[in-house]
Amino acid sequence: MRTLISTAFVSLDGVVEAPGGEPGYRNSGWTFKDIEFVPEAFEIKGREQQEATAMLFGRTSYEAFSPVWPGMEEFAHYKDMPKYVVSTSLTEDALVSGWGENTILRSLDDVAALKKTEGGPIIMHGSATLNRNLSDAGLIDRYHLLVFPLLLGAGKRLFSDTDKDTQQLKLVEHEAYANGLQKNVFAVIH
């Protein structure tokens, strides 16, 4: 079974909305406003590119990343990697070219089937709604979280508020940085 990794920039109060400056959110761009850049805190992002063999997105994140990431040197390892987009509304003609093979998945069952295929880890960036749904369905195997020392209040959350059974996590890697960022890597105990 393939490992599904959720990677996110998250505020201390659980908000993941618009970390890079996406329009329409009051605190858009919160990852680089008033937080000193400490390069070692982002080392995990390079490791993720080396480890991943495929990428998974929700429609909104795919539409935000696909026009930008294919040409970015920082994400060169992702360029030719297969991409999977979970969406009930996205059409084939909306998929970008020149960014590896792109496939639309229509349901969480399709994601579960993808996890049963041969291959290495699948990484999911952003995709707040998809993350909540996959977490609630027990389909995420690991979380890579860079926790920012901010309280943002309103905004899309990484985890749902669904009434569900306890999901156990094991902290497998952690580090705190001088600027207040924390790296937390959790394995999900299935």
From TrEMBL:
<dbReference type="InterPro" id="IPR024072">
    <property type="entry name" value="DHFR-like_dom_sf"/>
</dbReference>
<dbReference type="Pfam" id="PF01872">
    <property type="entry name" value="RibD_C"/>
</dbReference>
<dbReference type="InterPro" id="IPR050765">
    <property type="entry name" value="Riboflavin_Biosynth_HTPR"/>
</dbReference>
<protein>
    <submittedName>
        <fullName>Dihydrofolate reductase family protein</fullName>
    </submittedName>
</protein>
<dbReference type="InterPro" id="IPR002734">
    <property type="entry name" value="RibDG_C"/>
</dbReference>
<feature type="domain" description="Bacterial bifunctional deaminase-reductase C-terminal">
    <location>
        <begin position="2"/>
        <end position="182"/>
    </location>
</feature>
